[in-house]
Amino acid sequence: MGQIVTFCGSARTSLDNRINRHDLLIIDDFCSCPADDVRIDALLSLIDERHGEHSVAVASQLSIPDWHAALGGAHAADAIIDRLVPGQSRIELMGKSLRLGKAGPDEL
Question: In this structure, is residue 24 part of a structural domain?
Fold first, then answer.
């Protein structure tokens, strides 16, 4: 079973090589927390190391056009998107959230 890595937590100054030993990296809630330059640079390094070698699955509440602004709109944002988007298989869910059936809107 794969490891779960929380990237949005504390800033990383060096990436852990254990992440790149896995064939698939899953990034859940992509762009859901504020990203400073340190986190964006670390994400770019991680994505760049995996580019063309290993798979990355991304789940996000934001549409792809909104990723650029969420990643600070800088060159690093361009580079991250350029590595994730080409050659992608994309599943876009439409409609109401299934969570609304389990909790009221004020509870989300």
Answer: yes
Q: What's the domain range around 4?
A: 1-88
Q: Minimal CA–CA distance to 43: which of 70, 85, 76, 2? A: 76
Burial (CB count <10 Å: 0-12, 13-18, 19+), residue 43? buried
73 occurs within a structural domain: yes
How many Å apart are CA 21 and CA 12, to the nearest integer? Answer: 18
**Domain assignment of residue 77, yes or no:** yes
Token pair belonging to 45: 């390094």
Farthest CA pair distance, the chain? 43
Please write the tens of the pLDDT for every residue from 15-43: 566 777 788 889 888 888 877 888 888 88
Lookup: tokens for 25: 């990296």
Q: What's the number of domains the chain is made of?
A: 1
Which pTM does this prediction carry? 0.66
Residue 104 belongs to some domain of the structure: no
Strand ranges in 1-107 using DSSP code E only, listed in sequence order: 24-27, 55-58
